[in-house]
Amino acid sequence: MPHDGDFFGLLKERGYSFGADVAPGSSLPEGFRPTEGTTILAVNYDRGVLIAGDRRATAGNAVIHDRADKVLSIDDHSVLAISGSPAIAYEIARVLEHTFQYYRRSQLQELSLEGKLRRVSRLIRENLPMTLQGIGAVIPIFAVYDLSDGPEGKGKIFFYDALGAPLPRLRRRGPPVAGLCDQTSVHDNLLIFQLRNGILKLIQHSNLAVHSDSGYG
Prior knowledge:
By secondary structure, the protein is an alpha+beta fold.
């Protein structure tokens, strides 16, 4: 049966269930307060988009891993920055990566920007039961280099709410996100280096500000 490049639809037809089934009316244990604190910075500039994030994975106030990847490459022109439940966030990134690849190989063309945004929204909505319970929310930032937007393309940043609505932010002309440009001048490389250093300093300052509580940042 043809699926018109819809990898997630193919998975669901074969019995794949995203997220966990939560009983209606169930609630968190009394006194339970999930810890939040991922720091993600996305910067739109004249050559594209730069994204950076902290690398701490925490459980309560315990740091269980300090080298977690929270900025994930989905394809050559798309990056997903994750916050929230690591297990679900990594599953979303994995499904997205294969979804984009499946569409490209089955339809012999790249998935459009609108198509990519809808795929991300669909996965976030599928996770709504866990989000409502307060233990499995994932709120990502999605950055993409839109090849269809003019002869030089354009870097774009999208935020999402818990229901999967994409909220666009600053839009500027530039090369692919995450330094994927093939040709850069010395001046361009210096600009990227300065922006990266600036982002890293902001993250370092935010981490120092909450150093007393390892569950944040």
